[in-house]
Structures are given as C-alpha cells and as structure tokens.
Amino acid sequence: MATGSSIPDDVRRFILTSIPSVPYLEALLLLRADPRQQWDCGQLARRLYLSEKNAAQLLAALHEAQVLGMSADAEANFHYHPATPELDAMIQRVGQAYSGHLVEITNLIHSATGKKAQHFADAFKWRKDT
Questions:
Q1: Which residues does residue 69 pair with via DSSP β-bridges, in sequence order?
Q2: How many other C-beta atoms lie within 10 A of the C-beta of residue 82?
Q3: Tens of each residue's pLDDT in the chain, 130 residues
Q4: β-sheet bridge partners, residue 70
Q5: Chain-centre distance of CA 90, in angstroms?
Q6: CB-hemisphere CA count at 13 Å for 43?
Q7: Which of 1, 54, 60, 130 has the fewest CB atoms within 10 Å of its CB?
Q8: In terms of C-beta distances under 8 Å and separation of at least 24 residues, what long-range contacts does 64-73 make, across chains too?
Q9: CA atoms within 13 Å, Cβ hemisphere of 126
C-alpha cells in the first residue's frame, strides 16, 4: 500500500497510467458489471449522463485499450471483454477500490489530469531568455 493511502500501489499505478478521466472509469466499471450486455453510444450516454459524442469517444477509447469487444454486426455495439485475464483481474481490483474509496480515486484521477494539462501549458509559456 502507498504511504498514507488505502489504495494498493498497483491499483494506484494502473489508475494513474491507464484511466484518463472519471467518465472513462465509470464507463469501464458499468460495462464490467454485465459482460454479456451489449452497449451502444446512446445507451452509455443515457446511463452516464453524457452526450452521445462523448459516449462514442469513451467506447472507442476503451475498445482501443483492449478492454471491450465489438459485435460483428453493422451496429457499433460493445461489451466488456479484456484482452488478458491479468487486465480483467486489475480492472476487478480497481472496481473494488473505487467502491470503497470513490473520493480518493476521483481526486487521484483529477490530480493526474491536472498535472498533464499543466505540463502541456508550461511547454507553451514564453520565456524572456528565448
């Protein structure tokens, strides 16, 4: 466990390296809850109170991360299907941690995205010596 934290170190590392936003995590855990359920962007948008565009982006990102499988038919329906048993086990652990430490994990995600944004912004600061 991390010092001063109740989130296991490996779960903390996974969140910091693999979870870009709270909606991404919420979508991941929602789809994990019933792996047989097929989801499209409209369904996900309604469940997470997002626009269909944002829901479609989340589904595409989760599919690209090899967490979701996609149906073979013409409709873009997704279901929970991690690429490896190890990834599935880690997502299970993240879900357990999130259910008990929602605020701490939400703050962790926000602090990570805030730091990335600040680093990006810092790259564009005008410097007197340049």
A1: 79
A2: 21
A3: 444 568 999 999 999 999 999 999 999 999 999 999 999 999 999 999 999 999 999 999 999 999 999 987 757 799 999 999 999 999 999 999 999 999 999 999 988 654 444 444 444 445 455 4
A4: 78
A5: 12
A6: 13
A7: 130
A8: 65/18, 67/28, 67/31, 67/91, 68/31, 71/38
A9: 1
| 50 Rama sector, left if φ>0, alpha if ψ -120 to 50, beta otherwise | beta
Region for residue 68 given its phi and psi (left: phi exceeds 0; alpha: psi -120 to 50; beta: otherwise): beta
35: tokens are 């792996």
User: What amino acid occupies position 69?
Assistant: G
Residue 28 CA to its chain's centroid (Å): 6
**108 Cα distance to chain centroid:** 12
Bridge partner residues of 40 (DSSP): none
Full-model pTM: 0.80
